[in-house]
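From the thread on structure requests for the teaching lab: each student submitted one protein with a one-line request. Submission from student K.M.:

"Model Potassium channel tetramerization domain containing 13 from Fundulus heteroclitus, tokens only."
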Amino acid sequence: MSAEASVGSHDADSVQSAVPLPACHSTDEHRNPGLMGSKYVKLNVGGSLHYTTIQTLSKEDSLLRSICTGATDVTIDSEGWVVLERSGRHFGLVLNFLRDGSVPLPEDHRELDEVLKEAQYYRVQGLVQHCLNVMEKQQDVFESVCRIPMITSAKEEQKMIATCRKPVVKLQNNRGNNKYSYTSNSDDNLLKNIELFDKLVLRFNNRVLFVKDVLGDEICCWSFYGEGRKIAEVCCTSIVYATEKKQTKVEFPEARIFEETLNILIYENNRSGPGGLHLLDSRGSGSSLGAGQSEEEGAVGGDRRVRRIHVRRHIMHDERGHGQQTVYKD
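Reply posted by the TA:
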């Protein structure tokens, strides 16, 4: 009997040692098979604490719903907080989207990208699509912003024009480069040239590169480039010989500037061929010079020429009252 009792006691000790003792459990955290038995849930997302309902977390077929159903293992600490190893900076925004179905998104592109990453991680497809739609709208706004390069040196200008694949329109505007006084209308015409430049930028910004040169020798001069070479030039300044003094006069040949801008579009995306070059190098029947304008052509690169259009350089101008005769002298 003593031998059987000894064997029985040994078997009992073996069975007891095979069963895990409660003391072996981690008292700090354990795995939860599901949270559907509860109405509320406490979430610790990277140290950010949130208190919400199972119904809110289960609104979309997301990672949060799979956590509630037990399909995804989670860690719960000793105080009952579901611990998610994720930044909690934008988790409140994710919860608000699940609650309301819509949420204001940050305007900053970097923060918006962070929200998108969180929405993708939690697989909240509605919020993912919402972020993508807002990003697309922001992209349209960014593309509509006009950026005008400012030329500071001749070397920079040559490099920019040579490497640009789009036609280039340059406005050289240096009002301080003048040793004479200006005529009464010159300041207004100078501003009109600048305003026209801004209007052309808004209209053709996606097709033409517009640049400004404020350090050049000319007071107001337009230059038009295609395929890395100058195609045309419109100079808007002239010297006026008034009574006993010289003055600088600034013109505003709006129609001519607009015409040359349209002509330069033929060089867009290197689409110009022999026909295009011929079209630009020859004046059409509908093209005309305004009063007081003249045109010069200088040979550049063999048969290619640059049209230079400017107001007449030497003008005998009488500053007397309206109706008096003005004599032009070449």
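TA comment: Residues 224 and 230 are 6 Å apart (CA to CA). The domain at 146-268 is CATH 3.40.30.10 (Glutaredoxin).
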